[in-house]
Amino acid sequence: MASSTEEQPSQLKGVVIALLGVLCVSPDACIMRIVHETTTAGTNTILLWKAAIKAVLVCILVASCQGGWTRAVRGQARGPWYFFVGMFTGAAIEISFTNMILKTTVARGMLFYSLNPMWSALIGRFILGDVLEAHTIVALVVSVGAIFLTFVPAIVLGSGTEEGASTLGDIIAIGAGLTQSAYICNIRAAARSDPNINMIPASITGSVMAAVWAALALLASGRGLLPGGGGEEELAPFFGLMALDGLCVSLLLVALTLAPRHISGAEVSLITLLETPLGPFIVFLYFGETPGPWTLGGGALLLVTLAAHEITGSYARGSGDGGNDGGASHALGSGVAALASDEEAAKAVEMVPRGNDHSDMPVSTVLGTSF
């Protein structure tokens, strides 16, 4: 009884930390939109400095949370193949997520991107050999239905897409979710191969690759690396906003480091779903960008489906009936202990649900979050 009473404050602390992290990162899309609308910075300019600032901030976190670069690099050297896959998928996430936010409505972008837990389940099934449980299969079917709802106006009613949306942006958003899923499954494969493999350097290198790609694209098009030709009147607000965006991302990383020490990975995953409605809501408050009714309906259905999926999976494992899926239905929750030190992550492992093959062990791995 005493033990249960002692756990309650710790669990509440974990929930609060995770919530604060989500609240901090939710303005990410709005900040990028503000930069895009109020400065001459194009998509590649925003991508360049967003990825570069993120790489620097994560390096600082590595130094403070991982005991320095020597340990991080030593851990990464244990799995060079996983490093290269993580590096390229990490770069692809950076590129596709930024393009997604700027090329379609935030609501539609976040909706399609939020399919990544379902993609993770499918990739885990066909690549890692996971067994899909019934509630995961049902969630997959309902998720497809939720996405179909958003295309009803264009396909069934013939009224075209909603204002601000684009087919290219929608496709990029789906690709971003797929890439995120590939990144997560690569982490799981690395953990299955060697729990001591450290994927954080791959995440940082991926950000650097994205920044280099954006810089080369800018130079190839004859544009400079700075907005407005480098004029001081535009550089100050530009870098101020980009630094603020980087701070939002960093605070989420800190939250994903601390929260799994107090609550399970599935619970953290459930809380991070709040970014899906919060991001578009903040954009609505600032820009007045209103999602269409079919997008709202599809988004609500998808959010409820993902939440029910996480709750059902947690209940099944708590009853001793889960665990047959090898972690497929909870791939997202498996990596939230990312930036903790080895000792801290080892403690977090005890609270993170995993399949019976222990393939979801999150020691010294990093979750590629949506930024």
Verbal overview:
Helices cover 70% and strands 0% of the residues. It is mainly alpha-helical and 371 residues long. Helix 5 (80-103) runs antiparallel to helix 6, helix 8 (134-150) packs antiparallel against helix 15 (293-318) and helix 13 runs antiparallel to helix 15 (293-318). The chain starts with a helix and ends in a 22-residue tail after the last helix. The model is unreliable at 321-371 (pLDDT under 50).
SSE string, helices as H and strands as E: HHHHHHHHHHHHHHHH
Mean pLDDT metric: 76
Shape: globular
Structural class: mainly alpha
Which residue ranges are poorly predicted, with pLDDT under 50 across at least 5 consecutive positions? 321-371
Task: Explain the layout of strands and helices.
Blueprint: H1 2-25, H2 28-38, H3 43-65, H4 69-76, H5 80-103, H6 106-113, H7 116-126, H8 134-150, H9 152-155, H10 167-193, H11 200-220, H12 232-258, H13 265-272, H14 275-287, H15 293-318, H16 342-349
